[in-house]
Amino acid sequence: MSIVVQKYGGSSVADVSRIKQVAARVMRTKQAGHDVVVVVSAMGDTTDDLLRLAKQVSASPDRRELDMLLTAGERISMALLSIAIRDLGGEAISFTGSQSGIITNDRHVDARIIEVRPVRVQDELANGRIVVIAGYQGVSYRREVTTLGRGGSDTTAVAMAAALGAEYCEICSDVDGVYTADPRVAPSARRIGALSYEETQELAESGAKMLNAQAVEFAKEKGIAIFARAAGSALPGADPSADGTVVRRHSPRQPGTVVGVASERDVIVLSADGGSSQSRPGLSPSDGTSAKAVGPGDVLALLDEHKVAGKQLHVSGDRLTLVVSRENLHAEAEVREALAARFGGQVRVADTLGAISVVGAGINASFDNLRRGSEALTASGASIEGIATSSFRITWMIDRPRLDDAVRLLHRTFIEPLNS
Ligand code: ADP
Ligand code: ASP
Ligand code: MG
Questions:
Q1: How far is the CA of 179 from the centre of ligand 1 (A)?
Q2: What is the CA angle 330-182-78, rounded to 5?
């Protein structure tokens, strides 16, 4: 019998009536002849609420204790969904991440999955049961409970699908797939029927929340097809791209085409200026010959000490800039104090910018897309504070309040002409 993994996000299990609707959809899947594994997120805004609670207790809550707290959210929804399925006459059993065999490293708050040993899940499937798993969590080799970073239930689902050899992995949410931009921000955004792993990963890393970037990376490695769909949708038919988004290995589309626009609001930008007249290339730490000198390596070492992950790192001589997402940064106050204590005014933290990106294979083959986007942004009055590119992406750093307008603007510039 084929195994299907379904993941339901927080908004899809936000209250009792929605949990009952999910239970009915799970039952239909089982009745269609599949073995079913369901991964659930915490109800509604539970994770945000728990984080707020922790921050009322401490400005920089301990990472291990945060994981103990946050994993409780998914534990509530897994039990309630299992109860709801049983109420419909189904045989369900719920498991925590640890019970399902999700083994992670011990980097609390944004742990990575190292391996999945789904023995108990397989045993229960063999008994004919529907297995409901708490998403977003695992256990380290030291038997510490961990979480996988915000949006991590997607990763649980894909990792479980890979470990079980599932036919596909459905990611069910409040939108019916991945759109050309966040449909809440750009009403003219359209659903994209088919996406490659690379395009989806870049969109996710650029702030499109619908799918988690680590989950897509996992799916790519293991060749798992992801069907992104609405939680209330029919079960996937012969062509799941007709009413959702299918992410799998696709034949490449016309190179240079922008497929989507994404933005990330909650970022801070660190910049360090070594302060020495002689530039020190590379990541060499300060040599201590000048009381003032700060090497880029010194700053990165401090960030590693505090387990802060960054992106868009740029080092030139002894100057460094780095974008840090706030998503999994829960001890910002402590980190900023440590930076100020060690480097004084030589490390600055800008808290006024956001990132806007366009994504597509080969979009940087010439500078045409970069120039068009930059001209459109500048003409709209936005001041561009930085630009970064990869082979699939162009990212502009602009004033945060302009981000939503910029999403609509770049969508009009790059995507709408293709649809007309
Ligand atoms: P879930 O709780 O189901 O995991 P998320 O909030 O993580 O849901 O992701 C779904 C949300 O992602 C949508 O409500 C939508 O506003 C937002 N979103 C951002 N960018 C996109 C995009 N390109 N396509 C679809 N949804 C997007
Ligand atoms: N509940 C977690 C979060 O809000 C994980 C998830 O929803 O995927 O980030
Ligand atoms: Mg999500």
A1: 9
A2: 55
